[in-house]
## 1
Amino acid sequence: MPDSWTLDDDRCFSPDPRVRARARELYQPLRQLPIVAPHGHVPPALLADPDARFGDPAELFIKPDHYVFRMLYSQGVPMEDLGVPTRDGTSKGRDPREIWRTFCEYFELFQGTPTGLWLKAELIELFGVTARPSAETADALYDQLQAALDSDAFRPRALFARFGIEVLTTTDAATDDLSEHAQIQAAGLPVRPTFRPDALLRVADAEWHSNLVLLESRCGREIDDLSGFREALRGRRDAFRERGAAASDHGVESPFIAPLDQADACAIFARALAGSASTEEAAAFHAHMLFELAGMAVDDGLVMQLHVGSFRDHHRRIFERFGRDRGADVPVAVDWTRGLHALLNAYGHDPRFRLIPFTLDESTYARELAPLAGHYPALRLGGPWWFFDSVLGFDRYLDRTVETAGVYNLAGFNDDTRAFASIPTRHDVWRRSVANWLAGSVERGLIDADQAPEMASWLAYGAANDAYRLS
């Protein structure tokens, strides 16, 4: 393979020579900082088994990463050809080398995207690749990557140490037994679970009753009314806290959170048990339970994350064949100001409460989220999420929030990834982008030069520790 594919040392930096020089200077100390990853989707099973390995390049780079397979699907590549697991198991036997060949054949699709930036850095820095993926280089690259993955140096736990991860959090169903976290923590790895009760709050979903049965088994008692349901959730929160959880996570389309009259909430829960709750009642109950969970957060200290503004599983055929979270989610408009009015008036001033909102509606950064964070002490703004986890997305976020909220009301960065090998690269792109944005602000006279290094360190490392109360 020709030695022709290299990384630009100044990637993500401005072409303006003064800004670029200052960005380099600000960035250098950030490279040595440990990684704090307060929200992500790495499966804990990957780290629970000390002998675990990544089976092949397709398993590492393609199958778990909807950023990758959604792009190929958009160009007509069937998900079955990429080994994305189907609900009926019909795609499990796909040859990983064939999956990799397909990926390499379409690699040019990722040019100009954050995924392309991450993949290039992973392949070059982590695996020593020197040739761009293509139909011609696919087999040689596969062999090179497979040889690395077969070595002890590329076991997940070995990479965890190599990446310099200080804290890694997973995202776990409220009904998870957390046994894998017990194994991980017994090995001394700083991995924490995150409490995600979404499946238990969607009372109109077809799977809700089976999830409720699992909750009953975890709690050791029957749940036949709202009071029992509430106490079961509280008990699961306690179990997560005992395993080191610092936060809960909630993915919703709308940020509307408001309490119901208790009699109405009890009546809706009773109808849910009977299988007769309407869609409108289910939505009102979900909003009510989020308000109740915020009250629990005041008591137990779990930071409340809200991921809002995604129309989930937009493509019904993909959902029916492959299940949730298969790259068919689309941003929608969000009304944070009205949606959070009741919640923030109840708890936004309380020092025990911490709320971190994330949005897929960038138009709300300056109009709503920055003004809210610039007032309510309980609120810290989550970083650019999902589609906007990119160099230009970071610039837009900082441009639109810092003027009103400042940098010390921001929650820093989280990688939000299932793709384990991409963690250091994603954090590096954020750090480079922060250094570049601050450098530009200094050159424009908006930030004092002697304050910029501390601000850069805060955004790269300190903000996440502070927002999630990790230290």
Note: The CA atoms of residues 333 and 361 lie 6 Å apart.
## 2
Amino acid sequence: MNAITYCLVSTMADENAEIARGLRRRDPDLLDQLIEKYQHRLLRYLLHLTGRRELAEDFFQETWIRVLERGRQYDGRREFSAWLFAIARNLVMDSFRRKQPVSLDTVSNDEDAAPMEIPASGPTPFDSTVQNEQNQQICSGMEKIAVEYRETLALRFQEGMSLEEIANVTGAPLGTVKSRIYRGLAALEPWMKGSRL
């Protein structure tokens, strides 16, 4: 491990330890900072997982309540974002298991649900338009692929999580995570190339 990598790992470990201490104290300022830092990532993940904004917002609130209630359980040995996303995922999965005997795929592919949109960004209006069209195609594809692929791709490419962090969040073995990413990208390829609208 080189000096730069060591410093980064050491800084992250210190930050995680500080978060763990603050959660044990139920520090309201820390909770505000964590919500500010992770709100967009967490809501985006929940949108991909549920396919419905209202449902995602409900789970978003419930996740932060759980963080407050169970903050003492976070020990700081792993990345806080992985712990946070695991709480959110478990809430969603538990809810769907209790309420519906059908799969998460059938819930997220509801015809009445508004399509998820990924905001486009670019320096020019033309670039923004092209990016928006590509994002819409990929969103259409994300809605059609299996939920385990959709979840893994969202964690990897939108949330920037490592394969190990994804394994921690989903509870799947590392080999399964790799397989889901490979298969998810293969299933998404027609939409990425724009051949399916």
Note: The CA atoms of residues 7 and 163 lie 21 Å apart.
